[in-house]
Every structure is written in C-alpha cells, then in structure tokens.
Amino acid sequence: MTQHQSVEESIQAFRQAEKWLFSLITDPKGERYFQEKSMEVRMTEFREQIERMGSFLELIGSPQNSFPSIHVAGTSGKGSVVQMLASILRANGLKTGYHVSPYLQVCLEKLIVDGKLIRPSEFAGLVAEFRAEFEAWTAHSERFDAIKYGEAWVAL
After folding, report:
1. Each residue's pLDDT tens digit, 70-90
2. Cβ atoms within 10 Å of 60's Cβ, excluding its own
3. Going by C-beta distance under 8 Å and a sequence separation of 6 or more, which residues neighbour residue 48?
4. What pTM, to 2 d.p., does this model score?
5. CA–CA dist 46, 63 (Å, integer)
6. What is the DSSP letter of 109?
7. Of 46, 60, 104, 127, which residue has the fewest beta carbons closer than 10 angstroms?
C-alpha cells in the first residue's frame, strides 16, 4: 500500500488486477475443460507457447536471465521441494522468490518472496506494470496477439 492509498483503495486495486488476469482465460464459457489432442497438436501448442513467452520476455528485457534460478519439475511434490529449497537458500542469506500453481484460496499464494505472500497493493502494482508491457507487446507483435492466463503468471 502506498502512503496515500487507503486500505479500501488497495483492496479495490487488487481486485481489479486479479479480474484483469482472469480475462486472459480464453475459454468462452469461463469453464475449464479437457479436450483430447494428438501428440502432434500438443507439440505444436507447446512450441507456440515457448515462442510466445520468449517473444514477450525478450520485449521486457529477458528478466529471467538476470538472476540465478532453479526449475523444479515433475508430477508430485514440486511445491514442497520449492518451499524447502527456498528455506535453505533464505537460511543462507539469499533472497528468494517462487511461483507455484495452483493456489488454494487467494491468487497471492502463487507469488512468494522471501517466504511471504506479496501484499495486495504490490500485486496490483505488479499487474499494472505487467499489463502495460503486455499491451505494448500485443501492439508490436506481428505473430502473437495474447498471452494465456498461466503464461501471464509465469511472467509476473
């Protein structure tokens, strides 16, 4: 929360930021559903996702290259592993941040900095900054016109 921002204004900004992120979900009914896809289609979509994210991240200066990172992948236990690694690194004096998915109650659970949720006002500011960069990217991108909801969270 900024010095001149009331609690109510901070909560309203948080809700507006969250609502905008939800607008990136592309299912026209607002529902999540599974569609069977061939391996060829899945690989094409995967390549497009990597290219789309690469294009966006390049526009904003490739921030992923500005800090050391650990990528945890697998079927189960990623959240626990990430939390343990972050705790070990913090205990050794390092600043940590991580993104996990999905969240259980509030979207702020997805972005953890030094073991704490970011404040709603920080989230609103982060989304506003991201949104401006997103809009600049969509205005200049010749190939892509949108980032998907999950990709937006990774970029945040």
Report:
1. 989 887 888 899 999 999 999
2. 15
3. none
4. 0.72
5. 21
6. G
7. 104
Q: Across the chain, which distance is largest between two alpha carbons, in Å?
A: 53
Both tokens assigned to 110: 């997805």
Neighbours of 68 (CB within 10 A): 6
Residue type, 89: L
Q: What is the pLDDT of residues 17-64, one digit of tens each?
A: 988 888 777 666 656 555 677 889 889 989 999 999 999 999 999 999
Residue 101 near residue 153, CB atoms below 8 Å: yes
Residue with tokens 């996990």: 100
- HSE (CB half, 13 Å, CA atoms) of 77? 4
Cα–Cα nearest to 141, from 58, 18, 27:
58
Enter the tokens of residue 123: 């989230």
* Distances in whole angstroms, Cα of residue 41 to Cα of each of 38, 51, 93, 97, 155: 5, 15, 45, 33, 24
CA–CA dist 100, 21 (Å, integer) = 16
Cα-Cα-Cα-Cα dihedral of 35, 138, 99, 126, to 10°?
Answer: -140
Angle between helices 120-140 and 7-22 in degrees, nearest 10: 40
